[in-house]
C-alpha cells in the first residue's frame, strides 16, 4: 500500500471494532472532558484517523496514543508529526502502563465496543495512577457503568468501578456520526477517582463476591453465593441474603464480603 493512499484515508476494520467518528464538534466535547487535567499526561486509546487526537493536541495535552491497527499507525505518523515517538503500535490490553507512565496519567478514547469492558478492568488495575478516564462507548455499556443500585443495568462493572470512581453519563451520541454507522447508539462517560484508598475488606474476595453474585443475578444472594461458601451459606441469616445482587449498594457489597470472609476463614 502506497504512502499516498495511507495518507488519504483508513478503511475501518470490523475485526477491530472500528467505527470512525466524523463529527469534529463531538470530538471537541469529548476532549473537553479532560480540561481539568492539562498538567497530566494523557493516553488516547484507538485514535484511528485522529478525530479526537487533534482537539486533544490543540488543547495542549501531553499526549501519547496507542493503536493496534497498522494502517492507522501509518496514517497518524504522516498526519501528526508532533506525535513522533509517542504513537504506540500495540494492543492497549497488553501495554505495560507502569513503564509508560511512572506517575499519574489520564485515559481517553473512542473505545472499541468489543473490548470496552476489558479496557475498564485494566483501568481498575491502575486506579491509583489514573485519576480520570473518559471517552465514548456503547450506550448500553455506559448506562451499566453509571447505573445506581436497583436498576436493571446495574451489574459487575457498575459495582467494581463505582467502588473507586465517580461515574458520570455525560451525553448520548447518534450512530449517524460514525463511519461506518454502528447498529447502536453511543454515549460519553467520565470516571473520576474518588477519595477511597481502601475498601476495608479483602479486595480480591470483593471482586469474587460481586462476580459470583451477578453471574446468577436472577437468584437471591443466598443461592447465588453458595459456590463461595458451600453449605455454610445457611449461617447467613441477615435479610440481605434474600435480596438480588442488583439491589445492593457498593457499601453493602463490602459488608457482604466481610461476612463471607469470616465464614471462609472460620
Write the layout of secondary structure elements.
Blueprint: H1 3-8, E1 20-21, H2 24-31, E2 42-45, H3 53-58, E3 63-66, H4 70-79, E4 87-88, H5 97-100, E5 106-110, H6 116-125, E6 132-138, H7 139-146, H8 156-162, E7 165-173, E8 178-179, E9 186-193, H9 203-215, H10 221-224, H11 226-229, H12 250-265
Parallel strand pairs: 2-3, 2-5, 3-4, 5-6
Antiparallel strand pairs: 1-8, 6-9, 7-9
Helix pairs in contact: 9-12
Number of helices: 12
Largest sheet: 7 strands, mixed
- Evaluate the radius of gyration: 21 Å
- What is the fold named in CATH at topology level of the largest domain? Rossmann fold
**CATH architectural name of the largest domain:** 3-Layer(aba) Sandwich
End-to-end separation in angstroms reads 65 Å
Helix content: 25-40%
List low-pLDDT spans.
1-7
CATH class of the largest domain: Alpha Beta
Strand order across the biggest sheet?
Answer: 4-3-2-5-6-9-7
* Structural class by sheet pairing and helices: alpha/beta
Extended strand count: 9
Quick one: overall form?
A: elongated
Quick rundown:
Helix content is 36%, strand content 16%. It has helices spanning 3-8, 24-31, 53-58, 70-79, 97-100, 116-125, 139-146, 156-162, 203-215, 221-224, 226-229, 250-265, and strands spanning 20-21, 42-45, 63-66, 87-88, 106-110, 132-138, 165-173, 178-179, 186-193.
Amino acid at each position: 500500500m502506497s504512502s499516498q493512499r495511507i495518507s488519504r484515508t483508513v478503511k475501518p476494520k470490523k475485526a477491530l471494532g472500528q467505527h470512525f467518528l466524523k463529527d469534529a464538534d463531538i470530538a471537541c466535547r469529548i476532549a473537553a472532558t479532560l480540561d481539568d487535567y492539562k498538567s497530566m499526561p494523557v493516553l488516547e486509546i484507538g485514535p484511528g484517523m485522529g478525530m479526537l487526537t487533534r482537539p486533544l493536541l490543540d488543547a495542549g495535552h501531553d499526549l501519547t496514543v496507542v493503536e493496534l491497527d497498522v494502517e492507522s499507525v501509518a496514517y497518524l505518523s504522516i498526519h501528526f508529526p508532533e506525535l513522533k515517538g509517542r504513537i504506540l503500535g500495540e494492543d492497549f490490553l497488553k501495554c505495560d502502563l507502569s513503564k509508560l507512565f511512572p506517575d499519574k496519567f489520564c485515559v481517553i478514547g473512542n473505545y472499541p465496543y468489543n473490548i470496552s469492558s476489558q479496557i475498564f478492568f485494566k483501568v481498575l488495575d491502575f486506579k491509583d495512577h489514573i485519576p480520570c478516564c473518559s471517552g465514548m462507548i456503547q450506550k448500553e455499556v455506559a448506562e451499566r457503568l453509571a447505573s445506581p443500585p436497583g436498576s436493571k443495568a446495574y451489574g459487575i462493572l457498575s459495582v467494581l468501578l463505582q467502588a473507586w470512581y465517580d461515574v458520570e453519563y455525560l451525553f448520548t451520541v447518534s450512530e449517524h456520526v460514525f463511519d461506518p454507522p454502528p447498529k447502536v447508539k453511543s454515549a460519553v462517560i467520565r470516571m473520576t477517582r474518588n477519595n477511597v484508598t481502601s475498601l476495608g475488606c479483602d479486595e480480591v474476595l470483593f471482586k469474587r463476591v460481586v462476580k459470583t453474585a451477578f453471574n446468577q443475578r436472577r437468584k437471591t444472594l443466598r443461592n447465588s453465593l453458595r459456590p463461595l461458601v458451600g453449605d455454610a451459606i445457611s449461617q447467613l441469616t441477615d435479610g440481605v441474603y434474600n435480596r438480588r445482587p442488583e439491589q445492593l449498594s457498593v457499601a453493602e457489597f463490602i459488608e457482604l464480603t466481610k461476612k463471607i470472609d469470616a465464614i471462609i476463614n472460620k
